[in-house]
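Field reference: sequence -> structure
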Amino acid sequence: MTIAIFGNAMKTDTLREVRHILEFMSEKDVHVLLSQELRQELNLREYPGFQNSEFRFRDQETDEPIDFALSVGGDGTFLTSAAVIGDKSIPILGINCGRLGFLAEVKTEDVDDILQKLVAGEYSIEQRSLLNVCVLDKEGNKREGLIMAPNALNEIAILKEGLSSMLQIELKVNGELLHTYNSDGLVIATPTGSTAYNLSIGGPLMVPQSRGIILTPIAPHSLTVKPLVVPDDWKFDIRVTSRYDAYMVSVDGRSQSLSTDMSLHIERANYRVKVVQIGDNSFLKSLRTKLNWGK
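Structure field:
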């Protein structure tokens, strides 16, 4: 078995947990790959079996088959891991060194038991859908490379840039005009992302296995404009008007400024992210324990 470990090498808690995982894996028949950033921060002389275990996903230099990826950190680290892995179909297990953790569900005190089950094959795999965003110029031609990681596991958000006034966001769904939002922005979220930005602005929750997309305006200038859930095979075209001739598009928190001359096309991505589930971790349990459901 080969496992790749992702983590923010600048965080002490993450490094501590990665060291613990290395100690655990040193007793197993497991090949561990570490990112270059983690290797630089860790003293691998303490782990002689892992001194030649570097991978470089970002440079597309890894040809070795990888069975699993461990994302050590919070949900932000999980999103980064998913973006780097892309369509390589590598299942991801999230180990939570952060705060709430809907994606990084495994508590640090449970790591040994969870990893033992992973090595023993006692796990299941969930498929999570993503959104893809494409930038178009005013002639309708695709502008490649403006958004380096165009697929979102949580959400794509259209936002004001800086202190500019509200946006006018024209949204067409399957070619038909739905509405022109006068608002601070618009969040287009996956079921996985329903507990992220969408939740904080009053959007509905969805079970991650649902086949839908959530449209939630940010501070709309109308009492009658509400969040909307539509099928996940629907497609969206967005044109933005702003007094400052610019707006922000955020893909899972990775933000890019665009001119209002540029429009967006958003649809379901052509692959899914595999999420490892072990033990009694579930979305319903997360509602009870992390959101105090019903209390």
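Note: The chain has a mean pLDDT of 89.
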